[in-house]
Design goal:
This protein has about 240 residues and is an alpha/beta fold. It is built from 8 helices and 7 strands; from the N terminus they run H-H-H-H-H-H-E-E-E-H-E-H-E-E-E. It has helices at about 5-10, 20-30, 35-50, 55-65, 70-80, 85-95, 140-145, 170-180; strands at about 115-125, 125-135, 140, 155-160, 205-210, 215, 220-225. Strands 1, 2, 3, 4, 5, 6 and 7 form a 7-stranded mixed sheet that branches.
């Protein structure tokens, strides 16, 4: 598939998980490794159409700040494909009821099954939610998960896959892109560019990270206060998607 066609596929994609969007985008963008003047607008156009995909921001930032785009792309693809977050979640859910955390450092955090929410992106103490699963495994309202009183027995876990923990400036760009013109199906500036048409963007749902008790990442289950620092670089070129 021609790189431009692949970029169009990513731009129009709906219903794909965030990791797949980031994988496809990385595979397409590497074709511009020798042409930074083409790489920057390609990243901006993709993100303007998939602004709520944290791993896509992460992947674009990695490529734009790399001195070896090809090597960075291969590493980015490997990190996404080898993400152990879902395995870590399964292990945490199958652990002793009423205790969480690695052996020797377990916290008495829940006496009933936790409510589990998936993050599309997080930064500056705020989370863009993708979906939630209520205790027992049924799909539930992520608002209900976030608004659950702290005094209840059920823990609230946030699943943060590879590429979702964004650096502050990148997170600010994501929030700005989600609130800008052209959101929620309205055509915005530049809607006739090569990656058009713009797909409809669902209403974003932001909640405070403090609404959750624990975070599941590929390294396991940790208390919210122990979440590691953002694992992505800052790409100044992404500060303004229309710049």
């Amino acid at each position: 598939m021609h790189p431009i066609e692949r970029l169009r596929f990513v731009a129009r994609a709906s219903g794909l998980d965030d990791a797949t969007v980031a994988l496809e985008a990385t595979a397409a963008l590497v074709a511009f490794a020798g042409d930074p003047t083409a790489m920057v607008p390609a990243c901006r156009q993709l993100l303007s159409r998939q602004p709520g995909c944290g791993p896509l921001w992460w992947a674009c930032a990695r490529l734009l700040t790399s001195t070896d785009v090809w090597a960075s792309a291969q590493e980015t693809i490997a990190l996404l494909e080898q993400d152990r977050t879902e395995s870590a979640l399964a292990a945490a859910l199958s652990g002793p009821r009423g205790s969480v955390g690695p052996p020797g450092r377990q916290d008495r955090a829940a006496e009933v099954a936790p409510t589990v929410s998936w993050a599309s992106a997080l930064g500056r103490g705020t989370v863009l939610l993708r979906r939630s699963v209520a205790p027992g495994g049924s799909a539930g309202s992520s608002e209900a998960a976030a608004d659950q009183p702290r005094g209840t027995a059920a823990a609230r876990w946030l699943v943060a896959p590879v590429g979702t923990r964004l650096a502050g400036p990148l997170w600010d760009s994501l929030r700005s892109a989600l609130s800008g013109p052209g959101r929620h199906g309205a055509p915005g500036p530049g809607h006739d560019d090569p990656l058009a048409p713009r797909s409809r963007t669902p209403t974003p749902e932001f909640v405070e990270l403090a609404s959750f008790t624990h975070v599941v990442c590929q390294d396991g289950l940790v208390a919210v206060g122990e979440l590691a620092a953002p694992d992505c670089p800052v790409a100044p070129e992404l500060a303004n998607l229309r710049g």
